[in-house]
């Protein structure tokens, strides 16, 4: 993968809501936790501005990250980011340790390409409706994709692409499809414009016999 993410972190012993608020307010740091594997969970702190910069890159959410904690490196993926409801502030983060031989269960963002030349839109005047923006996947860390690509070029009006229609990268499997065909959910579709659908669905008025009416 072309992008490498490394964050500096420090271990912490002072936990609780009060301690977390002090970290964010006084030190410009945020609390976080690392868990998973055979090692006990570790409470850490991260520099808030470094985290915010990393979060600007979509790949950060689906990429193996190196955390340097007090001089010791750990490879992790992001499992959760808690944000302030009104301010651009990260309140807490969860990281999961990864092992090169252990299959990951995570989410990968979906990138819809060639929507501007999609036949259902450009030729038939349809509207693209996304049912998913990310996909639950299983894979080894070495196969973790930054995103899943869905090419919209040949998708026609009235057509729906399901998970099974997506070509996944080598070594990547859909969690939903592993549960059976009943879980083959829709990903994206091309629909008629709303006004056109209303016109098509409108009831047809019965014909009147104008000749008989005039004779009466």
Descriptive account of the structure:
With 216 residues, this protein is of the alpha+beta class. It folds into 2 domains: 93 residues, Ribosomal Protein L25, Chain P (Beta Barrel), CATH 2.40.240; 91 residues, Ribosomal protein L25, C-terminal domain (RNA Polymerase Alpha Subunit, Chain A, domain 2). The protein is 17% helix and 37% strand. The N and C termini lie far apart (83 Å). The mean pLDDT is 87.
Q: The biggest beta sheet, please?
A: 6 strands, mixed, barrel
* CATH homologous superfamily placement of the largest domain: Ribosomal Protein L25, Chain P
Number of discrete domains: 2
The helix content is: 10-25%
Helix count, DSSP H or I runs of 4 or more residues: 5
State the CATH topology of the largest domain.
Ribosomal Protein L25, Chain P
Task: Spell out the key features of this protein.
four-stranded mixed β-sheet; 216 residues; alpha+beta; 2 domains; Ribosomal Protein L25, Chain P; RNA Polymerase Alpha Subunit, Chain A, domain 2; six-stranded mixed barrel; 37% strand
Describe the structure in brief.
This protein is an alpha+beta fold. It folds into two domains: 5-97, Ribosomal Protein L25, Chain P, CATH 2.40.240; 104-194, Ribosomal protein L25, C-terminal domain (RNA Polymerase Alpha Subunit, Chain A, domain 2), CATH 2.170.120. It contains five helices and 13 strands.
């Amino acid at each position: 993968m072309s992008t490498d993410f490394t964050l500096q972190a420090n271990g912490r012993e002072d936990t609780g809501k009060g301690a977390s608020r002090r970290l964010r307010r006084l030190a410009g740091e945020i609390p976080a936790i690392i868990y998973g594997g055979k090692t006990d969970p570790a409470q850490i702190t991260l520099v808030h501005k470094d985290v915010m910069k990393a979060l600007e890159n979509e790949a950060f959410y689906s990429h193996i990250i190196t955390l340097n904690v007090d001089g010791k490196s750990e490879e992790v993926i992001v499992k959760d980011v808690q944000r302030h409801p009104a301010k651009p502030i990260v309140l807490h983060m969860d990281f999961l340790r990864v092992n090169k031989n252990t299959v990951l269960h995570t989410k990968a963002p979906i990138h819809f390409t060639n929507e501007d030349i999609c036949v259902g839109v450009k030729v038939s005047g349809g509207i693209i409706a996304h049912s998913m923006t990310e996909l639950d996947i299983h894979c080894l860390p070495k196969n973790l994709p930054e995103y899943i690509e869905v090419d919209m070029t040949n998708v026609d009006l009235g057509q729906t692409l399901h998970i099974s229609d997506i070509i996944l990268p080598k070594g990547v499997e859909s969690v939903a499809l592993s549960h059976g065909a009943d879980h083959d959910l829709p990903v994206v579709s091309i629909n008629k414009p709303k006004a056109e659908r209303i016109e098509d669905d409108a009831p047809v008025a019965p014909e009147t016999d104008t000749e008989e009416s005039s004779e009466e």
